[in-house]
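Could you join me in thinking about how sequence relates to backbone shape in a protein? Would you write everything just below, so we can both look at the same thing?
***
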Amino acid sequence: MLRLRDISIRHKLLLMILITSGSALILACAAFVGFDFLSTRDALARRLVTLADVVGANSTAALSFDNSADAIETLAALRAERNVVQGTIYDTWGTPFASYHRDGAIFTPPAPDKAGYYFRENRIDVFRPILLDGENIGAIFIQSDLLELDARIRRYAQIVVVFIIISTVVAVLIGFRL
């Protein structure tokens, strides 16, 4: 077994430089990935809140005239967002009025919750009121998976690993030359 005292000073210095710069590089990359994760998560939530507000605003006529077919058609616009799993429009009393599921499956929508977004294990739930002339006439629920966020983090992790490997090779080559 090779011990530290058996290694030449040149290699000890190189090892110290690699450990120091490698640690700093890993911490910097971790901070970058962490910041990107949080900002992407917030951007996803804002995008879904905006989508819920737009779909909710477009469903006011359907709710006002008790036309669930038009509400279902309005919810069908959620297909444009591939990560949206399901959506529900509720009437004034909190009863499901119209529903959408990306697979066409029947599902039991959750009870309406207060306005906001909620991150769960592998999804985000958005609840927003539907207002007409300032009066609450219903609510909308949208649920999205977090596959986009997961894919982005995986991609960044791959980039970080490649970056660290390349940086280490370059540092070793420069270290041997110095």
Observations:
- Helices lie at 9-58, 60-64, 68-75, 147-177.
